[in-house]
Amino acid sequence: MTGLLGALSEAWDEVRVHKSRVVLSLVGVFLAVFAMTTVTALGQLVAQVQQESAERGAGRPATIQVNAFDPMTGMPPDAEEWDAAVADFTERYGITTAASVSYGEGLYRLPGGTQRVQTVRVSPSYGELHRKEPVQGRWFREGDRASLSPALVVNEAFLEALGVPDLSSRPTVVLGGPTPVRATIVGVVREGYGSELVAYRVDRSGGPWDDAGSVDTAQAMYGGPTTLELWVQPDQAEQVMEIVSRDLGLALGVQVDAYRQDASGMEETLAMLRLAIRGAGIVVLVLGGLGVLNIGLVTVRQRIREIGVRRSFGATSGRIFSAVMLESVCATALAGVAAVGASIVLVRNLPLERLLNDGIPLADTPGFPVAAAVEGLVAATAVGALAGLLPAIIAVRAKVIDAIRF
Amino acid sequence: MTLLALEGISRQVDLPDGSVLPILTGIDLTVAPGEHVSIVGRSGSGKSTLLNILGLLDTPSAGTYLLDGEPTDHLRARRRSRLRGEVFGFVFQQFNLLPRRTAVENVAAPLLYARGRDFLRRRRTAAEMLDRVGLGGRADQVPERLSGGEQQRVAIARALVRAPRVVLADEPTGALDVETGAQVMALLAQATAENGAALVTITHDLSVAALAGRRFRLEAGRLSPLVEQGALGAATSDRSSA
Predict the structure, then answer these.
(1) Angle between helices A266-302 and A19-58 (to 10 degrees)
(2) Using a CB-CB distance cutoff of 8 angstroms, which residues of chain A are in contact with residue B45?
(3) Which InterPro entries does this UniProt record tie to the protein (chain A) (predicted)?
(4) Fewer CB atoms near the end CB (10 Å): N or C, chain B?
(5) Is B81 on the interface with A (CB under 8 A)?
C-alpha cells in the first residue's frame, strides 16, 4: 500500500516541481481532449438538431401514414365512421399516439386584404408526433377542439402579415368564407420559406363554423381526416402497416394504404456522422499525445542522474517504471479534467439553438453527454499511459552506475 | 562479526574489440558494523567499481560478496534494490541532491521507498535529521540556494535518514574547500558513529583517509593496506596529479 502511495507521491511531486514543463507538455493534450470532447458533445447536439428537424417534417420514428379512400369514387370514408374505426383500432392495439392531418388552403382576412394561406389541419397530438416547438405561445391541446374560436398556430411571416409583433395582445384573425369566424392565434412556429404564410388549425373545432375559412369544402379537406398518422415502435412498423390496412379496410369497406414516412435511414446517417467526428477527435488526440511523448523522452534523458540517485535509495525497477509512468498519467489526467471542464463550460454557454436550429427550441435538449466527458478523461489518461511508456522503459533500462557516476 | 565481506572479488568488462579489461582483481575486504574504512587510489584504479559492488549497484565477475554472511550473487534484482535502500546510504562527491526540491524534501526522498511508519513519517524524520546536521533552519531551501558545504550536509542527512548500517561515501569532500571539507568529514564520521553505521570512504585526501580506523590503497585493481608513510605520500601525489 505504501508502495503505491509512494509511487503516486513521487509522481505528483515530479509534476509539482516541474510545473512549467508539465504544463507546456500538456498543452497539446489539453487542446486535443478539449477538441475531442467538445466536438463529440457538439456532434451529439447537431445530431439531435438534425433528428428533430427531420422529425418535424416526417414524424418520429416510426410514423406510419395511413390513407383511406373508396376505390370506386376516390372519396374518403365518412368522417364519423372513420373516427370510430380509428379509435377502435388504436385502442385494440394500444397505439397511444395517433394524429390526423389534412392539407389545404384557408381564407384569412389580413390587414392587406383576404389572403389564401396554406393551412394544415391537425389534431393536437400532431405536435408531439412532429416535435412542434412554438417559438411563441403554445401548440394545440385537446381543449382547443371544443373552442368556439378556432385555435391557430401560425408562422412568423403570418404574424407579421397580421401586423402584430407578438402574442402578448392575444391576436385574432377572421377566417373568411360564407360563414366567417374569428380564430385565436395561440402559438407561433418558425416554418416556411421567406415570406410564405403557414397556418395550423386544430381539427374538429366545435360549432357550425367548423368549415369556416375553407376555400372549397367540396374538397373535403376539413370534412374528415384523409390521412392518419400512427406513432409506433420502429421494430413493429411493418406489422402495424399490414394490420392497419387490413383492419380498417375491412371495417370501412374502403382501400387503406399505409406506409412509413419517417426517415428510417437517419439513424445510420447519424451514426456515420458520429463515427467521423470520433475519428477526427482520435487523430487530434494522437497528435497531442505525440507532443507529450516527445517532451517525456527529452525529459527522462535529462533525469537519468536523478533516476540513478533514486535507485541508490533502493528504488526497484518496477518503482522507477511506475513513477515515470504515473507522472505522465497524473499530468494528462489533470489536463483531461481541465479540458472536459472547459468543454462543458463552452458547450453549455454556446447559443446552440440559434446557431444550429434557426432559433427553434429543441424539444429534447440533450445535456452535456456524460459519455463524451468520460471518453475525454479516459482518452487523456490513456494518452498519458502510452506517452509515459517509452520514457518509463528508458528510465528502467538506464544503467545506474553510469547515471550516478561516483 | 563481519557486516560486509569481499572474498576474491574480480570485475572485468568486455571491450568492443573482443579483449577483456580487468578492473578489480582478487579483492579481499571485510567491514565490521560501525567500522570506518577508507580507500585511496588514482582515478581509474577501480574505486568506483568497488563502491558499486559494495552498494549492490554492480555485480562482480568472480568472487564472493557476503552481506551479513549471506552471499549476494544469487539475489534477485528486486531484493538487491530493497537491501540497497535498507542497508546502505550513499554520499556522492557532487552531492547529487534532487534539483528544485527543498532540503527537507531531499532528505525525505529515500523514505519514499520505505514502508509503513517510516514512509508515513518521512517529512518529520527528515526534519529531525536536518536538525542533527545543523540545517534545521534551512529545511525549506532548495539546493541551488545552499552553499557546497550545506549541500553536502544535506546529502549526509539524506544518506543517514533510513538509519543505514553502512554509509558509502565517494569523495565526500572532493567538491569542497579544505576547511569545509574537514567540517563535513567530521560531521559524517560523527553522524555515522552515532547511528552505529559503518563508513566506507573513497578519497584522494589523506587527511580524510586518516580519519578511518583502517585504510587501504587501491592500485591497478588490487587492494592493499595503506599503513606506511611512503604509501600515504604516493596517495597525496595522486591527488595533485588527478
Answers:
(1) 180
(2) none
(3) ABC3_permease_C (IPR003838), MacB_PCD (IPR025857), Macrolide_Exporter_MacB (IPR050250)
(4) N
(5) yes
The C-alpha angle A32, A38, A43, rounded to 5 degrees, equals 125
Dihedral sign, CA of A84, A86, A89, A92? negative
From the list A87, A62, A65, A63, the residue with the least C-alpha distance to A252 is: A87
Strands A181-189 and A136-137: antiparallel
Residue of B47, B79, B81, B101 to mutate, testing the A interface (most A Cβ within 10 Å of its Cβ): B81
Q: What is the ipTM of this complex?
A: 0.84
Q: What is the DSSP letter of A113?
A: E
Asked if B81's CB is within 8 angstroms of A315's CB, the reply is: yes
- Region A235-262: what's the mean pLDDT? 86
- A76 vs B188: CA distance, rounded Å: 109
Q: Which of A298, A292, A300 is nearest to A396 (CA)?
A: A300
pLDDT band, residue A250 (cuts 50/70/90)? confident
Beta bridge partners of B27: B9
Chain A interface test: which of B57, B87, B106 (most A C-beta within 10 Å): B57
Instruction: Please name the residues in contact with B8: beta carbons below 8 A apart, sequence gap of 6 or more.
Output: B26, B27, B28, B62, B63, B64
Report, in this order, helix, strand and coil percent for chain B, each rounded to 5: 40, 25, 35
| A377: closest CA of chain B, how far (Å) | 28
For the cut 50, the answer to whether the pLDDT of residue A208 exceeds it is no
In order of A111, A175, B171, the CA distances from A171 in angstroms are 13, 13, 98
If you measure CA to CA, which chain B residue comes closest to A307? B98
Q: Which of B220, B166, B173, B221 is nearest to B192 (CA)?
A: B166
Nearest to A400 among B57, B99, B100 (CB): B57
Contacts of B162 in chain A (CB under 8 A): 313-314
Residue B207 CB-density burial (10 A; 0-12 exposed, 13-18 middle, 19+ buried): middle
**Which residues of chain B does A16 touch, with a Cβ-Cβ cutoff of 8 Å?**
none
Class of domain B4-241 (CATH, top level): alpha beta
CB < 8 Å & 24+ apart, contacts of A136-141? A136/A166, A136/A167, A136/A187, A136/A188, A137/A167, A137/A185, A137/A186, A137/A187, A137/A188, A138/A186, A138/A187, A139/A187, A140/A186, A140/A187, A140/A200, A140/A202
The three grid cell numbers given for residue A231, joined into one nine-digit string: 406513432
pLDDT at A207 over 50: no
Taking 3-state DSSP, the helix, strand and coil percentages for chain A, each rounded to the nearest 5, stand at 60, 15, 25
pLDDT band per the 50, 70, 90 thresholds, residue B23? very high
**How far is the C-alpha of A212 from the C-alpha of A175, rounded, in Å?**
6
Size of interface A-B (CB pairs under 8 A): 83
Residues in chain A with CB shorter than 8 Å from the CB of B170 are 406
Q: Which of B59, B76, B86, B96 to mutate to test the interface with A (most CBs of A within 10 A)?
A: B96
- Asked if B175 reaches chain A (Cβ–Cβ under 8 Å), the answer is no
Distance of CA B196 to the CA centre of its chain: 15
Contact status of B78 with chain A (Cβ, < 8 Å): yes
pLDDT above 80 (res A396): yes
